[in-house]
Amino acid sequence: MSTDNYSFISDISPMFRPYIQNIFQDLKLGLCKTKVDLERIGSTPIGSETQFRLVLPYCSKKLKWDIIFDPSTPWFAPDFRFDDDTFLNNADEELLAIGVPSLTKWNSSDPKSLSEVISELINMYKIYQVKKLNEDESSRASFEYSALLGNALTTEQDVEVWVGGHVVEFLIKLKINTSRLPELYNDGIDRNPGIDSALLLVRYPNSTNAELILSPFLTKVLGNISLPMMHQSGVLMDYVPMVTDIINNKIQDLLNNDRLKRELLAQLIVKYEGAILEHDASSAALLFEMNDFHWILQIDIGTNFPEKPPILTLRSVYHCSKGKPKFKILPSCPYNNFEGYIEQQAEIFKNECKGVIQIHQTLNLE
Amino acid sequence: MAYTEKVSLNGTALSFLLYECMNSVNSQEGFLIGDVTSQITNHISDSQNDNARLDTQIVIRTVLPLPSVSLFYLPTGTIKEDVLSELLSNVATEVVGWYKYRKNSSIKPTFRDKLISKGLQKYFEKYHGRKTFVSCNLSIKTSSISSTHTVIYRFGKINCFDMYEHVEDVTANLGEKLAGYKKPTKVSPHCIFHKIVKESNVQSSNAILVIQEAIDVRLIKEAKIAAKNECTIRELEAEIKQMSNILADKQVVDLEGAYNKILNEKFVNRDVEMAQACVEALKTPATVDILSIPNVILNRKSTITSDSANSEVQVEIKSRGISPELTPSSSTKPQTLNYAAVLKKSTDSASTSASAPKDNKTKNYDEDLISFDVEEKHNQKPIVISDNLSVGGSSPEY
């Protein structure tokens, strides 16, 4: 919830505030939990606003729906203004009673009432868009939609359709398996607000380029994924499973890499058991001694392991420069003759550290 | 045939409408009472075409404000017909429209407004058989220091395509662009005026003056009754306002209470879930530890099962050297415990089986880096040692 929303909520009259607070907590939107915004309409004095505009994400658009409460009859259901004039304009009683039951039986003492009405209205909007899509049975988009749903991998809940003047957009939720990812990258909740989802945005006409929209966490983890081109003769029914597989494979690769990393670290720790100073899931610091010279070897294994080798750093326990221990990052990390290489490098490092001191001493003499 | 439709509102009706709206607290609804007249004009020009035009005029004479909003409809816009017939009783045949006033709002009709317009149109068609039913949306915008008040209003109706369309309205002298001679509005031959003239049979030349006197007398009488009624109405309105304030306050309190209850439940649930997760984590030892040192698992198991095994643990700690490996190879040394022993001070391992098990527990407990006390019965120390290290601590399986 951004600070703008928060300050606007305090502008809303306390009579209706719990409804809106509940929207930010509980609203079940279609495909993923994207940001819901509040906008101000009208200009009543602060603290007693009774109408506001809700900006809801749908497909690639934002729906701007006005919600109007009446403070003289706060127990009555709110009124709505939709930005699409044709939506629900010839609705009859039964259609509304079935589609929006929470509005027919508005419970004014339940803070969840407004969230439920909004989710039901969005559902009806979805149905309305699908109806609009199927009005032209012969269009490519209509065929693609029915084919996509026909193969039972994607359900109606996973697709949001938007029919504009000449453009039809599909937003498809991909079924990817992210259950093991938090083990790898758990930075805390602030930077990972949403559920992990990958969405595919396809437009008709011009269906050659699909857009992949990833949640912030997945973007960080997977980086840039370039999608294969969609051919004119290609069908969504085949393309969507293909993209899903690409993403799942990439996630699996990441998990495998991480396992290798951990195994390597485990082996190192077990082998140099008494030498370990500290370690965590991706690096370790060991204290070694050779010919009465002690040094610390720090092994950092990055997330791109094994494409990128681990970074080795030697740190001196005797010398420091500018208040920090002297350190040297080794140029490479060999997988063969590891110990020999380290011994060599340690010798060089020792001389470098000592050498520096010698120079200092000579300067002081003069 | 061309077809035009206009709403004609005389000054009195408009000012009454605006007066009622301004004086309401927040919003108001009501009905527009008047007549619908149509006339066909045939415009003949040189082009020999018959330019017939059907002009429909919806004349609004007066306004019937309702005491409160949301009286005659449900949240989904369905009309409550019994309430409506009670409210309107005998004026139902003269209703030509309804109005909705919202303070500080846009005059675009809302989703419910449109449904109500349609519903009302159907309802009143039964009474006077006319298909025309207008709706008026009004609003007021005030400048920040309340020095300028702007009233906006618009008439419209739901057409045959179920779309809301704007209907032009004309008020005498209000923004009219026509200057010059205006034709008087046609009066229907069945209107009251003609009826009075016919029935009173006044033949003298000052017939108008006679009629005027009679009207004056009658009006004064009616005015007195109206004044009394207005007083009663004001009292009733004050009572209603008081009661609705009480109801509104109660509603606010109920809603807040319900919301706070939900929040508290969430917190309690969260705490309960966390506690349960902790208990679960303690019960099940990590099945696959990334270090995979057989001894570690053995030691842990033994300490969970019996307290007497503590002594074994202590002895083994003592045997561990503190100084780090000088040369990398350490595989020859017997693997007694994992490297966390380095963290332990040598004094710690002094406890032998002679001392009470409880002392062992508490002593070692202090040395732990992270203390984790969910249930006192468990001896958490050994478990915590390995859990300190974040290597694969959270991974379920490998």
Distance between the termini of chain B: 82 Å
The strands making up the biggest β-sheet of chain A line up spatially as 9-10-11-12-13
How large is the count of helical segments of chain B? 9
Summarize the helix and strand pattern of chain B as letters.
EHEEHEHEEEHHHHHH
User: Count of helices of chain A?
Assistant: 9
Structure commentary:
Chain A: Keywords: Apoptosis, Cell cycle, Cell division, Chromatin regulator, Cytoplasm, DNA damage, DNA repair, Mitosis, Nucleus, Repeat, Ubl conjugation pathway. Chain A: This is BRISC and BRCA1-A complex member 2. Chain A: InterPro entries: BRE. Chain A: Component of the ARISC complex. Component of the BRCA1-A complex. Component of the BRISC complex. Binds polyubiquitin. Chain A: GO terms for molecular function: polyubiquitin modification-dependent protein binding. The complex is a heterodimer of chains A (366) and B (398). With 366 residues, chain A is α+β, with helices and mostly antiparallel strands. Chain A folds into 3 domains: 3-130; 136-259; 272-365, no CATH class. Helices cover 37% and strands 22% of the residues of chain A. Chain A has 9 helices and 13 strands. Chain A has a 5-stranded antiparallel β-sheet, with helices on one face. In chain A, strands 1-2-3-4 form a 4-stranded antiparallel β-sheet. Chain A starts with a helix and ends with a helix. The model of chain A has no long low-confidence stretch (mean pLDDT 80). With 398 residues, chain B is an alpha/beta fold. In chain B, strand 2 (27-44) and strand 3 (50-65) form a beta hairpin. Chain B is elongated, with a radius of gyration of 44 Å. The relative contact order of chain B is 0.07. Chains A and B meet through helix 2, strand 4, helix 3, helix 8 and strand 9 of A and helix 3 and helix 5 of B.
